[in-house]
Amino acid sequence: MIDLYGLTRAELGALLASWEIKTAHVGRLWNYLYWECVDTLAAMTELPARLRRKLEAHCTLGVLPVAAETHSTDGYTRKLLLALPDQEKIETVLMRYPGRVTACISSQAGCAMGCVFCATGQRGFMRHLTTGEIVAQVVHVQRLLKANGERLRNLVLMGMGEPLHNYDAVMKAVDVFRDAAGLAIGARKITLSTVGVVPGIRRMAEEARPISLALSLHGATQEERLKLVPTARRWPLDELMDACRYYMEKTGNHIFFEWTLIEGKNDSAEHAHAVGRLLGGMDAQVNLIPLNPTSGYDGAPTRSEAAKRFQAVLAEYGLPSTVRQRRGIDIAAGCGQLAATVR
Ligand code: SAH
Ligand code: SF4
What we know:
The chain is an alpha/beta fold. The protein has 11 helices and 14 strands. The strands form 3 sheets. The chain has a 10-stranded mixed sheet, with helices on one face. Strand 9 (154-157), helix 6 and strand 10 form a beta-alpha-beta unit. The longest helix has 16 residues, at 131-146. It is globular, with a radius of gyration of 21 Å. The relative contact order is 0.12. Residues 111, 113-115, 118, 120-121, 161-162, 195, 216, 336 line the site of iron/sulfur cluster.
């Protein structure tokens, strides 16, 4: 069976053509999938009967059932635990900020990268998600928003998993998100966050992928970074920075550098100076994320005064920075807290 969420519009066109069905119907079908966001094939009542029979016989709509749903007490964050067909589970988070809604989606069940402070990494790797499973998360969110007369415009690939470790499936999903006749999410409104998979960053540059790129840095020397990010062994910092510079040159895009602020570990003025020396002069912006609690890592978040001092040092190097608002911590929906276990 073919998961309709796993196909680009061109692939859907080819499928219909292979059934000798007029490609004129692709638009109507795409509309059902990504505008009306119907949740069953049976709801596609206006398609020609022969097409409906073909779809019922050969295709599925990979809607992911909600295994649990939690809302943060501040009312801004909603976390969905979604069940995959093989009973693996993933999490998708909906975050409200003034005037906008952002969905944070997963690219893998678990993660193989093992960053010490991340709940997903602490659980290990289960499997890659298919394109259909990545797309289904966004359609689910859009369906919820649509019921309120809203539309999803911002998307971050910052949920469970390392997106560049599942490159092909992720990029095909991105093509579906961007399709102007469907979800129509602007390329710059889609942010992919990576731990620093060098070949993936280089490939994004080669393919001139216009989405926004965020890089999880956390340490500004190879030695410091390796303490937090084990994959720094495979892709050392100098190779990573070369890939970042290559990406910036090729695409003309800037990069967001993410820095989880851990009290007493990587949050001193010296650490900030090291970031400044590494990134100063680059078209970079730093997103500081005070550590969120996870069961497998015993560290504390940097307090706000220390975070401000860190930012002041970065500013000396001409580096703009922001401190990420803490959201959804009470329901373990914050950065790095997604473990897909029912709590
Ligand atoms: N695998 C990708 C994207 C998912 S993680 C990546 O690592 O970039 C999304 C962001 O959350 C990353 O910047 C990651 O370093 C950060 N993060 C992980 N655990 C965290 C924690 N406990 N507290 C704060 N941020 C965390
Ligand atoms: Fe994987 Fe990202 Fe977590 Fe590291 S921070 S373990 S790369 S999800």
